[in-house]
Amino acid sequence: MACLNADLIAKSVNRLRKKRGLSYAEFLRTLTHLHFSNKNIEDIGDISMCRNLTVLYLYDNHITQICNLGFASNLTHLYMQNNNITRVENLSNLQMLSKLYLGGNRITVVEGLEQLSELQELHLENQRLAPGETLLFDPRTLLSLAELEGVFGLWPQLLHMDLRGNPACKTPKYRDRLITACKSLEVLDGREINELTRQFLINWKASKEAKMKRNNTGALIPYPLTNDLNRVQGLTSTAVQRRKKPQPSFHTDLG
Known about the structure:
single chain; alpha/beta; Leucine-rich repeat, LRR (right-handed beta-alpha superhelix); eight-stranded mixed β-sheet; two-stranded parallel ribbon; 12 strands
């Protein structure tokens, strides 16, 4: 097993450093990308000399803890999927982080991301959990999917989220709730979110909540699942005919 530190980095880039005629310290300060995937790395040591680091590849290793990255204020991409990480921690200083890959680890609680206002992609698919364990969003503030609005409010730039292979995906109306809770989300679990479907769900939910309030019954009236696309499209078409007004078309092009 190896430890990611300044010495290991220096050895890996020695030839390029000599070509540029720089000292180790000078060269490490110029690095913006570090590629150390599948290198049998178990720990992250002191790599603070790489002060201009923006992209760090550490996937397919044996890392158990996210640590010693507090210096990396310019880091935008962190790839740590397929390790042995059990906690999401020590990321609060990464103010520029936009893409975080933590799939294939052993994480049970999603926490410690409150300061990441620039986060656009969060990947947590296929956590390798013990029987009976489930993936939760910070239980101190989040008790169920019905309260996800508060969590998504912390990540206004979030465009992609992947939770495939986790027990949360089996929660009734899981996809519907996430689509209506996060207005900026464009791709959920590898599937694009159709804006017409999103608007229909938002309107349906608002209509039912208003009706419930008027009737003061307190009964919750469910809204349809987005995986039943034919039903959603049929209801939308019927609503259009009743109003006799043309509806705006939506085009999603994620490139």
